Amino acid sequence: SVLILDFGSQYSHLITRRCREINVYCEMLPCTQKMADLDWKPKGIILSGSPFSVYDEGAPRVDPAVFDYGVPVLGVCYGLQEIALNHGGKVDPCTHREYGFATLEVVKLGAGHELADKLFEGICGEMQVWMSHGDQVTALPPHYNVIGKTPTAPYAAIAHESKPIFGVQFHAEVTHSPRGKEVIKSFVLSICKCKPNWTMETFIDKEIARIRQICGEKGRVIGAVSGGVDSSVAAKLMHEAIGDRFHAVMVDNGVLRENEAIQVHKMLFEDLGVNLTVVDASDRFLTKLEGVEDPEQKRKIIGNMFIHVFEEEAAKIEAAAEKELEENPKAEAKGKIEWLLQGTLYPDVIESISFKGPSATIKTHHNVGGLLKDMKLKLIEPLRELFKDEVRALGRLLGIPAHLVGRHPFPGPGLAIRILGPVTREQVKIAQKADTIYIDEIRRAGLYDQISQAFAVLLPVKAVGVQGDKRTYDQVVVLRAVQTEDFMTADWYVFPPEVLRRISSRITNEVAGVNRVTYDISSKPPGTVEWL
Ligand code: XMP
């Protein structure tokens, strides 16, 4: 496996992706990691880029032990500069900073330099690369050779004359360096000699063994499921590992999609055998939400009530187990609930461990963070090594149906943040009906998988219309559909007009109280994905 030391570049996690794509396990740790404290032995180390200049005050420095660790090292961008500085080279600000495409001329050193030439194995002449740097190497460290240059960067790729230490100024990990993945592959497979044996099947076996070891013979785990991909996949994996000692709880908060609780029960409990309790708390939630307009207030009510209901249910599960033991002391005693399952994914882990530069943006997390504090449970996070598409692949292998595995995200506060103005039971019904029609029609048109997220929003305004020769004064539904990679930025989806026409006429015909349907053509920014 490969260790990636993160110096805070926005591209660091892409290095992880590229390694995973060639089936090599890798782990990313902050650049402050001391090699002496590492409790596993990587076969290679990659130093990432950084928003810092090596000369900035407080610029992160690599542990020099990296270079004596005895495994190959590849520095990318800032990583290259760290290599140069650590070995007696020079780094200076570029006279003109370089952002964007550049043409790299690969320099082959020939006989006697087989190791150095391995990094660009199979690549000759020129290749297009993506640069993003303000400093560059201006003097080669002793015992290093140039293996690639651009018209403005004479030391754009360097290699030690005999040790497996390499540096590249360009970002090999981004797709804008089309042959970058070949470079990473050469480093990881040919130079580090990693075995490409990290597959989802091996992940499942390893993770099940790990969960069993953590939970022991009796330990029990509780976890919330929402019907979303992550929590369903995590729940099924827990079930595979410890069977009924895992309890899934689904809280019906009254602002779920139409029939959501029934469908999740069917899928997780009936079809997949997961030990699931659905708690219908919709009345409690809707009573608390009645008339609430402010979006943050809605979120708070739902978040707090959720914790409350979940804790009540955990106590019930615990009490039932104790009673069972009292009545039948010979029964195999189940242990206490010690663990809380969370469907945390790798991007969230990266976000929390990555080295933060001064300009680091803080992402708002939407998960149920409050639970742990109050319940004194230890966290178990079986998906914490995976990216979203890997979770989907895992879900498919675990037998979760395709339509669920490919589902769009659905926010925790549910339809409450898609009903503008006060939340009432009537408004929830209207929003549910419109949402069902919208999503049905998108699926029927075969467009669901091209869209990252689609939903209907109910506006709190009324407009005049005419239906059946009668004047109406009814509500407006907004359709939203976006395409996005990471939900940080998003663009609106261009529907074929006939699909929009069908959705509009079905909603106005079938949903009482709505006489207009509009389509949201705002990107993010300046809009957000949700309306609240
Ligand atoms: P925004 O509206 O911030 O949405 O552009 C980005 C993504 O986050 C989801 N979202 C939420 N998810 N609780 C959640 O669990 C929330 O309060 C929440 N607000 C937004 C949104 O659906 C989109 O996928």
TrEMBL record:
Q: What is its EC number?
A: 6.3.5.2
Top enzyme class, one word, equals ligase
Q: Name one GO molecular function term.
A: GMP synthase activity
User: Which residues belong to any copy of the GMPS ATP-PPase domain?
Assistant: 198-407
Q: Look up the coiled coil feature and give its residue ranges.
A: 307-334
Transmembrane spans: none
Q: Does the keyword Cell membrane apply?
A: no
Where is this chain primarily localised? cytoplasm
Per UniProt, ATP binds at S226, G227, G228, V229, D230, S231, S232
Q: Report the function annotation for this chain.
A: Catalyzes the conversion of xanthine monophosphate (XMP) to GMP in the presence of glutamine and ATP through an adenyl-XMP intermediate.
Name of the molecule in the record: GMP synthase [glutamine-hydrolyzing]
